[in-house]
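Input.
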Amino acid sequence: MYCRNCGGEIDTNAKICIKCGVEKFKGTAFCHNCGNTTEGNAAICTNCGVELKKVGGKSKMVAGILGLLLGGLGVHRFYLGYMGIGILQLVLTFVTCGISSIWGFIEGILILIGNFDKDADGNSLTD
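Output.
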């Protein structure tokens, strides 16, 4: 098995790569099945044919509904890992007495129609 971050060999029982310190099955440069080098946006490994999905992706539906219902509080941004913008939305909602909550509502719509499709780590949102 190979590290998806640096390509170094990892024992199957190891939890992290000794070479770079990244947890096993993290990183995007290598296939999680065979360790072959992959393109960052590839959908299938050209070596073994396994689908290169991100494990544990966030749900587009959950993020969109959170944006529609609690967008002014930045809950959808916190869910997706954008802590700074989530805090900004929360503060602005209180400072403007709720007027800026329209920002979160609009983002909820954009998430649901697919114009906003990545979390803070760059992983695609799942359907």
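The two ends are 29 Å apart (CA to CA).
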